[in-house]
Write a structure and sequence with these properties.
- This is Stress-response A/B barrel domain-containing protein.
- This protein has 80 residues and is an alpha+beta fold.
- The chain has a single domain, classed as Alpha-Beta Plaits (2-Layer Sandwich), CATH 3.30.70.100.
- It is built from three helices and two strands.
- Strands 1-2 form a two-stranded antiparallel sheet.
- Helix 1 packs antiparallel against helix 3.
Length: 80
C-alpha cells in the first residue's frame, strides 16, 4: 500500500490544478473499517474535472479499487 500512496502523492506534480495531496494510514478506531485516507486539495471546480479525467488518476483509481474499498467525497470548503 505504501507504493500506491506514493503514486497518489505523485499526482500533485502530474495533474494541473492540484494544490496538494495528503495520504496516510488511519490511526484511530473511528474509520468504520477504512485503513487509509487521501485528501486532495484542488484549485477550483475546473481542476476537479481535470483531476477526475486525468489518465494517471483514472488508472490509479482502478488499481486502488482492486486492493481496497473506496469512499470518495467532493466538496467546497464552506469557509471559502
Amino acid at each position: 500500500m505504501a507504493l500506491l500512496l506514493a503514486r497518489v502523492r505523485a499526482l500533485a506534480d502530474e495533474v494541473p490544478g492540484v494544490v496538494s495531496i495528503k495520504a496516510g494510514d488511519n490511526i484511530t478506531d473511528r474509520a468504520q473499517g477504512y485503513s487509509h485516507g487521501i485528501i486532495v486539495t484542488l484549485a477550483d471546480r475546473e481542476a476537479l474535472r481535470t483531476y477526475l479525467e486525468h489518465p494517471e488518476h483514472v488508472a490509479l483509481g482502478s488499481l486502488l479499487r482492486v486492493h481496497c474499498d473506496v469512499l470518495a467525497l467532493d466538496f467546497v470548503d464552506a469557509g471559502s
